Batch of 3 targets.
Target 1
Amino acid sequence: MMMSYTPPLREFAFVLDEVLQAPQVLRALPAHAELDGELMMQVLEEAGRFAANVVAPLNAIGDREGCRLEHGAVSTPPGFARAYAQFCEGGWPALACAPEHGGQGLPHVLDCALYEMLSAANHGWTMYPGLLHGAYACLATHGSPQLQARYLEQIASGQWLATMCLTEAQAGSDLGQLRTRAIPQEDGSYRITGDKIFISGGEHDLTDNIVHLVLARLPDALPGSKGLSLLLAPRVLPDGSRNGVHCTGIEHKMGIHGSATCSLHFEQAQGWLVGEPGRGLAAMFVMMNAARLHVGAQGLGLAEAAWQRASAYARERRQSRAPGGTGSDLIVRHPAVQKLLMEQRCRIEGARMLTCWAGLLLDLAEHDTDAAMRRVHHERLELITPVIKAFLTDQGFQCASRALQVFGGHGYVVETGIEQFMRDARITMIYEGSNEIQAIDFLLRKVLADDQRRLHDFLALVSADAEDVSVLGDQARLLKNAVDKLKDYAQRIAQAATQEATLPYFVADEMLRLTGHVALGWMWLRAGRRALSALAADTRYYGSKRDTACYHFAFVFAEVHQLSSVIEGCLATGLPPLPTDLDHHAAQEAG
């Protein structure tokens, strides 16, 4: 089935120009002083055209055909290589890279929008360039001048793709268990030996070279994650010879069939150190955090694509009589279907506002002329990154499931194509740090570790808007109440953890999701107020936005009550007892 996709350009214009005032924010930065809203929309129109006309038609093909491994070489699905060549010809890999490295120097917020559209159009294909900017940022921050001269421009242009080689069979989330070794050589290079699994784009036919960024241990490394170093090992060495990196298998997966997920064997592969010895994780996290923001955009994009199909189907499918109707009605007139579609719409449009805000934070953290403010923007981005990764990918899968539900039984058969979005979306909740790990990172490291300072800074931004009850006052009061609860819970969890060390781990997911709802509520409050102020200019569009904001607070934001009751219960009465046989088999093995 042909997978059509309509870029949500009017929605991007509303979010960037009207809700976030992105052109004004960016023009205050010397790096983007010449930027205006018209140029931003021209870029997004071209990006949307590429996503819809070039990448989207390959989505079903990629899912059906998948990748093939023969004699250590991976062939991507038909059309993928040509589409990638067009991607590079259009200059899209270099969109947000620095001009001195061959980039266009455009804002990161546009890159976020680009990758939402690409993910919506074809998640499997988008996996290949998805790590480019993270690899670029990692090398630009930590690479030696020699490595930067050799690799940065090729990565920025997309001429060479990149991978992130972390996971090993015995070491999934626990990177301290990694066994891959790197032995120093007299010429300053290293010889890398070990095996990595789940490497997205570890081998393919899209580019002549692949730049592998590999976590490994040097001979004198400390145990655990503190002993890891980061190395760059290309598929093709500078002299043109093939490096000792071999693809030993590709995974047969539930979804993203068009993406080659590889097992790689490094056998005395030549590599070069990136950053300082034993500081590999610090360097890798530059790439990983960029990847986590992209994964949040993947969840959003998949939800948008699934919603588009469900909404179109509901407007053509007739079934039974709607309440108050006569005869067979379009299912879009049934309240049950309207609720399914409206929930998706609220989550998707709120998520778009949040990811664009994060993109602006990235621009401000990089280009603000005030060093102290650059740090503030960076800390805000640190706080919101695990929320975007976990909360938006949870929502992406949930929205894809709701979209399938609109199709009824027809959604469960492959011919309609809607089930692919559920399968593709499921991985986003797992890779780049599972959502459970994101929640733990958020609560323990981003909130409790600094006495809630970053959380309070974020909530102060929200409160500044929620304090005003002159417009959408009921919604503002709901949001302010949630802000107060979140502050209170963070403080009480910190106190309770001194007596019950495991309590934060049990409520981390609820705290992250509660923060996510506060963030989306903040965005919808701003969007609703903007819609009311512009109502006379376009009653239909802005009236719909106003109504969606109110619907969000009535139906979606209400999840705050359930999350609060779980947290409140744990704080008031302590953790409930766990079944004694929960770890029975593990205890037997340990015994």
Target 2
Amino acid sequence: MSVVGFDLGNQSCYIALARAGGIETIANEYSDRCTPTCVSLGEKQRVMGVSAKNQMISNVKNTLHGFKRLLGRKFDDPLVQAEKVHLPYEVVKFQNGDAGIKANYLGDAEEFSIPQVVAMMLTKLKETAEANIGRKVVDCVLSVPNFYTDTERRALLDAAKISELNCLRLMNDTTAVALAYGIYKQDLPAPEEKPRNVIFVDMGHSALQVAACAFNKGKLKVLATSADPTLGGRDFDRVISNQFAEEFKKKYKIDAKSKPRALLRLLAESEKLKKQMSVNANLLPLNIECFMEDIDVSAKMKRADFEEMAADLLKRIEAPLRQVLADSKLKKEDVESVEIIGGSTRVPAVKEIIKKVFGKDPSTTLNQDEAVARGCALQCAILSPTFRVREFAITDVTAYPIKLTWKSSMEEESEMEVFSKNHQAPFSKMLTFYRQEPFDLEAVYIDPKSLPYPNPYIGRFTINKVTPNPQGESSKVKVKIRVNIHGVLTLPSASMVEKLPEQPEGEVNGPEPMETDQTEDQKKTEAGEEQNADKQNEQQANPEQNQEAAMETDQTEAPKTENDDDAARATPEEEKKENTDAKNGEKKAEPQSKKSKKQVKMIDLPIDIHVNRFTTGQINLAVEKEGKMIMQDKQEKDRIDSKNSVEEYVYDMRNKLYERYEKFISEKDRETFSKLLDDTENWLYEDGEDEKKQVYIDKLASLKKLGNPVVNRYQEDELRPKAFEEFGSALQQVRKVLDLYAQKDEKYDHIPEEDMKKVEKALKEKQKWYDTKLNAQNQLAPHQNPAVMSDQILTEKKNLETVCNPIINKPKPKVEPPKDDKKEEKKEGESGDAKPEGAATQPEQEQQPQQQQQQQPQQESKSQEDMDLD
């Protein structure tokens, strides 16, 4: 199982992996841990990340960036219309009203949905992670802004499915940062002690997010969140670029805003200047060569001027900071520290505002760029069964209050708040309705004015197959509503409660529904709790009284990690809770009386869900399209690699023909080959610029047909002398052995003469071959093909050794030492007269049975002792 965390930002992305040694932020193919959130569509392929960003100026209308802001939104959305002005590519309206992007891909104009484009970026991050860990990546945790609504979160989950990623959790940026901060802290207060309160401020490229968190040992609880979704570093960049655009208009008579390429260059230079002003308060220059109409432009700005121009933006920072204090009910003195992340928090004016609001200097203990990705990887490790992670419970919150609306039996509109602002999440609630027929529940956000989204509508949920009870009255329907681990509102289950006939205690007729026996005290306690629940939380939907659904007392806090809708783990307590919430089978639902048992069974009801997200068919089509694009990218990469191989060979050989390989090719052949290389180079940049892969393969093969002999002659000139030297040494060694044998050397006198004749014959043959080939090679020029190859020489050497070595290395036979006759006679004298065989051992044989008889009783008594001990 892969353990990967992706921080998908509006401007840049980061990837973190959980390894045995901890969390590591990995680098892309350019050895950069920051990957730009950029997709460039071309005539032959698409590129993402750094390569795409490099094409922002050259392929301006087909290079997509800033698209994350459009995720899950309609074309007529005010935010989309505002963003559209600053985007160089075309934003279009789909038939369902969603915003999309139109761009040229493979020579044709195509329209892409925003989740498709986000999926392209996720595919790039996935490939980078797979290249680093060497295996397929499937499971991951994705970061998401804490102000995202239900529709935007569902759209991001759709994008993950299109890129074939299994998102275990959508994790709020600030929550991920808090996890990365708290899980390594060893000095957190004990669970029963007062928590440590920390404020996290994340100001990135396009948004400001704030969260107040309470830490105890092994526990993180988010108290409140706030945000400004339209305030980030890019707004400061635009302030600077607008100032320079006006200045250039007056000074150079050019309008930078009229040309997308010029505006993009100006924004890039403005961002660089902003970063320089963050560390230098002096007057700093801005210079751009050939900006427009071959005009070089220059200007200057200092930090004080920038802060004055951005005063309105800086004032907006205070509101979310003060809002999070108010919602969390914390005072300045209750806050232990203020942790800042995000590139825009490096601006000195931003730090000053944070210090002013919270009364303390902001802390930078976390990596301001990589903290979110690291927190996501930690969450993925917690959810993964392959890693053992320190126990750490995480409780998040819902950003906006949610209510349910429905029509009563009198066709009157009723509503009820189910989740308040900053309500803990994940969280489940059980609602009770009284109905005789199917009914609809609509979920909406309560306060549209505080919502950074024009439509407060979340979705409609239809509860089907509701029928009257056997008495013809309204049936009791229990509906479970939940904000799941992704922060998405769901209706996991709905059940109809059917009462069974009452039976006297002890009487059993047929199979009995599932129930749990209770003591008298337990019955009283449960009855009291149910009565209190009826008073406080439950408004029963009675047609006569016109009272509708309400929350029951079986609400429980969701565990730190759970399995609700999307493959995350659940604690045993949560599983027990889920099982008792009327999913399958027959379960007890009413308190028991003393004389009879009220028995019920739960009937699962189907739910139709109507929310703003892709259908299964749409996702399948998008997955198929993404697969085709991935295949096209791979084919184009292989084609370009083949082309580059030809180009590389041309440059490499042309230089070496007049240097390293000069003496290994004739003058005539060199001129011919050199001309062919020049012609190939010209062909590459003209007719051969856009050929198929096989054409480049054939072209390279034709070049190597002429070039390989030259290269081989060079290589043989390096290897052949050494091979001849080794072969000559082997011949000399065999000759030396033959000379010693002729001199009757005792080292070889054990070898038969006929074997040595075989050695002598082999030596003569190989010596003759050696002399012939050496003389032939010495008569050839370096540019001529060699008379013999180095591998042939080594083969002949091996053949010689195969024949000769077993003979000349044959070991001498071992000689047994002669027997000493005197010692044999002495041994016979000591033994005295000869006795019949076996006579000397007869007394010993007679003694052995006696000894055995003496030992046997001891062994028997010992075994008896052992048995007694046992």
Target 3
Amino acid sequence: MTGHLLNTATSASIEKLCQQMLFVVVVVVLLLQLPHMACKAEAIKCPVNDPVSLPHEWYQPGNLLIGGVASQIMYLFPQLSFHNHPSQELGFDTPIVVTKFYQHVLALAFAVNEINRNMKILPNITLGFHIRDSYYDARMTYRTTLDLLFKVHKFTPNYECQFPKNLIAVIGGLSSDISLHMANILNLYKIPQLTYGSFAPESTGTRQVASFYRMAPNEVNQYMGIIRLLQSFRWTWVGLLAVGDDSGDHFLQTMEPLLSQNGICSAFTQRIPNQGRFLSLDELIDMTSKIYLPFLDSKVRTFVVYGESMIILWLSALVALEDPGYRENAYIGKVWIMTTQIDFAVTGQITRSNFQIFQGSISFTIHSNQCIGFQGYIQNIQSCKTQDNGFFRAFWQHAFDCSLPNPCVPMDVDGICTGEEKVENLPESIFEMQMTGHSYSVYNAVYAVAHALHSMGSSRSNLRVMAQGKRLQDIQTWQIHSFLQGISFNNSAGETVSLNNRGEMGGGFDIMNMITFPNISFLRVKIGMVYPKAPEGKEITLNADIIVWHESFNQVCPLSVCNEYCNAGYQKKKKEGEKFCCYDCVPCPEGKISNRKDMNDCFKCPEDQYPSEDRDGCIAKMLSFLSYEEPLGIGLASVAVFFSVSTALVLVIFVKHKDTPIVKANNRDLTFILLISLFLCFLCSLQFLGQPRKVTCALRQSAFGIIFSMAVSCVLAKTITVVLAFQATKPGSSIRKWVGKGLSNSIVLSCSFIEASICMVWLGTSPPFPDFDMHSLTGEIVAECNEGSVTMFYLVLSYIGLLAIISFTVAFLARKLPDTFNEAKFITFSMLVFCSVWLSFVPAYVSTKGKYMVAVEIFSILASSAGLLGCIFSPKCYIILLMPELNSREHIRKRL
């Protein structure tokens, strides 16, 4: 195992060493050729067939030069064989021209010319530029960069070679690898490099390069924008396509954890070839077969594509290779999310490919604004076809598919350019009239250098240097770094451009929706923006209503999930052995709901709501209490009123016949007190009806307890009076002195006082209060009186029960005493009814809920009171009203 690791490490080291040696060899050879190339005279205007000369460059002289490395031309370079001189192996074949990127070249030239016309920025300095192409190749990028530094553009009589020339800064490149290759050389000479591509510095190793400046936002800032975009459309099952290089590795290493942390799964990750390496037809077909398989998964509708500028060319070629009747449908009906570096561009070789598959794509682009005069400058592009503009011919011929006359080469072919061609008529995939994000970065880069030079010339130290006879253009390039770092200015588009101390430009990204047309043109519609410094969850703004989706979706937002969303009322249950985005849907458990699709867990409703039958929502609970309006309340209130009136009538009858024997028997005053107590007991039950209030809750149980204890005390006193009266009739009894009103009144007052004391303690310590029971009944909020202290409540009832049991016992023992109008047997029966009611009350009260609990208590009050009233007073009323002859002294004497 250890040997294997050592062999692997050794192989990697040897490979890296070989690459470094190859780079050194190429650079040394080119450096040996440079003095000859730089100082030789160019006597003829038509170049000879020199394989070393680079055909594409644009030079405009000036006191200070801004270099540019564009990425417009592409050649199929052979691998170095070391059989011939390296310069002889860098031959050129038919170029592949990305005509759209000619705008980057024009943006640099436009900015330089605009600054030269503005006398407020560099009044005594004329800026020039020297633009070359990287050719999407590492060797050519190194050579291009060296040419910018050292090669003289053309021969000048009595010219003395400079090493290096008056190059103040270089703008480029578009991709991460090109930028890194340039930085390897430019950093040696401390020449500022302002890159206009958006990529992560960690993926290129440029974070520690002191001369490296980023004129586009760091691409890492768009990663969270992609996450928020996926979350906005609830796409949780996505495919990742990344270019097969270091930047693609960095993207996957950063993006996949972010996806998992935010509830999104990558259905697959697929590496695609780097744009700089063109595969053979066999290799391309083999790669196509491998990449085609993930597209067969119909559940993966969304693809996040990461790559460099022209990955669209590769994807378009991929579709072009497929049999339209066999595999093309696999690529249709997909949502393509493109990262910042990807541009919708085509070349002459693939202009007929199926560009329609990208209909409805969503792309992140560098934020741009339109600069005044740029479109007019583009419309006059034909005036730029000077001999020094080597980019124009390649652009024009490939954009319009025609040939420009060449004075050095006789031409007798068809397809000569007429000169009537208009760039504004070109499709956007070939050339755009609106300034793109990359062109906007190039434009800002030129202005950043100009403003840094302006600040440099305005500083006190440099004013002293220039006062000594030195010119600004003679100052060394390394001195500009301190002025570039932290620079801030307003461009002609009215936006503030600033670089921080690390040489990075802030800002966000635009989110664009692409609408394609059959003629390979398209329209970009801005649908949102990415704000990296926004609070969490607010990183993007999105107007989803204006998105135009692929026609296969019928303008309905597509789904990109491992399985269908769980409906409301269900929750997700993970499938064993699969990613967390793949799950089953199970119903919510009892008492919980899910009110949205695809919820991880169900949840309980708020206390004032309850789950619907389908468990997909919460329904507001009805406020429940025993009211006067409902039938049960009306019935109980009617019974209470009826018995109250009945008690009042009995009291009237007894008052009217107060001097009759039956009324006077067994203490007339106790009879009146008992009737009044029963009357109040019936009325007391009405306090339990209606919505509980603070006053009613505090008084109803206490009033009920005191009044009932008074009524039972009267019954107890009457029973004791009967027993004592019988005992007092015995000769020589000493109990006679106890018989009278004093004893009965003492019994009533003392028993009632004890109950009143218990109630006062209850009210003083933990009184009842209005409360809402949210949980006892489903669908109802029970408005009730919380008893405060349950112990005190049952103590009150227990004391009444104690009095009732004593009364029942005494009355039961005295039920057969031979006395006229003996009430003991009636009291016995009434107490039996009373005790039976209240003994059944406790289990009934505990087992019921809501308003029915209150109804049980009201019924117990009415039933026990009615039992006392009926059992004790109905026989007497019968005699008073229907048998008056029995209620007379004569009848009593006869019985005696």
